[in-house]
Amino acid sequence: MENNTDYIFIEGLKVAGKHGVMAHERVVEQEFQIDVRMEVDTKKAAQSDNLADALDYAPVKEKIIEIIKTNSFYLIEKLADTLCSEILKDKRIIKVELTIRKTAVWGNGVPGVTVTRVNA
Q: Which residue among the candidates 43, 44, 95, 102 is catalytic per the annotation?
């Protein structure tokens, strides 16, 4: 019996957006760093060597950028949940783990959140 777990991931994606509780965070863009790991069966793509059989991470990247730039949430938890919900619309994705870091908030340390969601 096979027990394989495969992931497609994007690390260190930097996107400017207006998210946060403080009033100035919702007016002036700040940088968010996104890491996303998507559990997906890659066997078909590995066998065919064809992008059509793979989970193409470029559209995932573009959707993340679009959501961050066109919305403004108070909490990064809401942003993370929204991103995961959008990513999981692709039913090939079994599970998504997404981390958002607010890189410019503090001079010493980086706050953020990591959420994990599973496709229903």
A: 102
